[in-house]
Amino acid sequence: MPTDDSHPRRAKIAQSARVLAGAFLGEYVLVEEDAIIGPSAVVLGPASAEEPHTLVCKGAEIGANATVLPGITIGLRARVMPGTVVGRSVPPLAIVEGNPARITGYVGTPDNREQEGIRLQAAQTGIRQSRVNGVTLHRFRMVPDLRGSLTVGEFAREIPFVPKRYFLVFDVPTAETRGEHAHHRCEQFLVAVRGSVSIVADDGDMREEFILDRPQLGLYLPPMTWAIQYRYTADAILLVFASEYYDPADYVRDYGEFLALAKRRQAQ
């Protein structure tokens, strides 16, 4: 139900949003189209209009008895599980739960951990095409030896570009996510040289989650792939090769903008 705009302090609720029985919405809260606020959920707003407003984005769901603290954004189609206490903004499509909230998955993203293990045991080397456009999972040759093991991949032969840059991501707190952007031109290749990292790849239509948990496993991300890294183990070190030098103009950091660009590309 929409709010009377003559009272700007009140929560503003889109016509198609649903606020279920017992839910409480504080002042300066904005609920966008198709969002759902569950029974007895509490969504708090800031103390004044000068502070960041609390935003529940289009299609987001807040479960029963969940609490959202002031100034938080619940991203596009994100899902807050029942009883969760949210003290930090939730990315688009993320599923969060617990107190404090932690990301436990992404909406519409199959969990491939068991299936991937079966595939990898069946083949020593090879490339698997993803359901996400252009994304490929690579398993390279492993050479065990009493002196230590070795794994190797060749650029332009097995990896579809020659890198101009690399970077390492490590010491990531467990609750944090990395990535959450796409590139206009840059290609990337990811290898977890130690520990385990989960990667969500998204082309604007399909999403898939990959577990990089061994050094002979790599993931290729073509341009215009929205990528998220999360579930870092404490010892994880992620090595990323990039086809381009760093250029801030090459980044797409807003998921809504990414979806619009992806839709435009698909229509061409």
How do the helices and strands line up, and which of them pair or pack?
Blueprint: E1 12-13, E2 18-19, E3 24-25, E4 29-31, E5 36-37, E6 42-43, E7 54-56, E8 61-62, E9 67-68, E10 73-74, E11 79-80, E12 85-86, E13 94-97, E14 102-106, H1 113-122, E15 126-129, E16 136-139, E17 141-143, E18 150-152, E19 165-170, E20 178-183, E21 188-194, E22 197-202, E23 207-212, E24 217-221, E25 226-230, E26 237-242, E27 251-252, H2 255-267
Question: What is this entry, summarized?
Answer:
With 268 residues, the protein is mainly β.
Could you please describe the fold and organization of this structure?
The chain is mainly β and 268 residues long. The chain has two domains: 12-106, UDP N-Acetylglucosamine Acyltransferase, domain 1 (3 Solenoid), CATH 2.160.10.10; 113-267, Sandwich (Jelly Rolls). It has helices at residues 113-122, 255-267, and strands at residues 12-13, 18-19, 24-25, 29-31, 36-37, 42-43, 54-56, 61-62, 67-68, 73-74, 79-80, 85-86, 94-97, 102-106, 126-129, 136-139, 141-143, 150-152, 165-170, 178-183, 188-194, 197-202, 207-212, 217-221, 226-230, 237-242, 251-252. The strands form six sheets. Strands 2-5-8-11-13-14 form a six-stranded mixed sheet, with no helix packed on it. A six-stranded antiparallel sheet has the order 15-16-24-21-26-19, with no helix packed on it. The longest helix has 13 residues, at 255-267. The model is unreliable at 117-122 (pLDDT under 50).
